[in-house]
Amino acid sequence: MTTMTSYPIPRRIVRGAASFAVEANDRGEAEFWTRFETGVWEPDTLDLIRDHVDARTLFLDIGGWIGPTALYAAALGAAVIVVEADPKALPALNRNIALNPGMAGRIEIVAKALYPETGKVRFGSRRKGGDSMSSLVHEHMATAWEVETITPERLAELCRGAEKVFLKVDIEGGEYVVLAKADALFALPLAAVHLSLHPAFVLGGARGAARAFRWLRLAGDTARIFRHLGGLRVFRAARAGLQPAPLVGVLARAGLCLWPLKKSWFFRPD
After folding, report:
1. pTM of the model
2. What total number of domains does the chain contain?
3. Which domain CATH number covers 209?
4. CA-CA distances (angstroms) from residue 45 to 48, 109, 163, 255?
């Protein structure tokens, strides 16, 4: 008796002027793409990409998962470099890009973890992986891998010649590890930066003095990241739109932001 293997049917996603095909490999992915298309999933992120990306933009997507922001930016005309280290997410990312031959030539996948040093790092998930929540910083990983790294300097070399760069970073706490030492990325011709901060993953389950130490370290790392972006205006990215946050910018850059900032922040030139 021959067993028939069923394969997902490609699905066309349309959001505003952007249209692309994806493969929903399980119920969770199917539900995710419905949330994406109907504006439930991170509408602030997608609105920022829509408003700041065009055919002259290089969209540098650090933490690309299965491709929602990378495909969206490419569908709006941008060239894309997408960095993703989770080996459970990479097959779906590759398939989704391959389903869009008209723009696949403008998308480059870097299947490595961004890290200050070349080599391998422990990277994993508190669950099974492939769920967009994998990170360098989880204390307790149910699933973990040794993955190759790419340095900020090497990644910046891949962006050489770009007229303007939209930098998006969403790496579940790993941003503190890499961005405080990412001078080369901040030297790119940045037209916009979308930064998601996840202090809870760094604080973990620490208590007492250990938690206080991690809290202070987060404040220092936040200050270094915001100083790198010192020439750009700071906004809080929210569902209601961009909210100017000049005081946060001043305090963070001065090292006086002694509480862990979280959620999404946006930076752009004056």
Report:
1. 0.94
2. 1
3. 3.40.50.150
4. 5, 20, 22, 27
